[in-house]
Amino acid sequence: MATVPGAPTNVIAVGGTAQAVVSWTAPASNGGASITSYTVTANPGGATATTADGNTLNANVTGLFQNGTSYTFTVIATNSVGNSTASTASNQITLNAVIPGNGTMTAAKAAALVPKIVS
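The chain above was modelled as a monomer; its predicted structure follows.
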């Protein structure tokens, strides 16, 4: 009789601007039924990404609008019986701040982002 799959392992996150690419290793056990999808969840905020099949071992989590905030991610595997427990949390990432121009922070750009105090 099939059961829910085991939890995915080795969850790794790489941050970008307002998004992260998360990859993982398939569970040691699929519970006796093929894994049909994986769901990645961001913490904080709860943004999710779901794969279209059980063979894809990475996902791009978008909608992470708190640049400068640290995030971790967990992954669950789903088969015809149900969902695994959540994986151990990924490494912690901090999203890049949006930088005007070509994406390189210079002293001039940093000064432009900080309001001037006039006395």
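DSSP finds one helix and seven strands in the chain.
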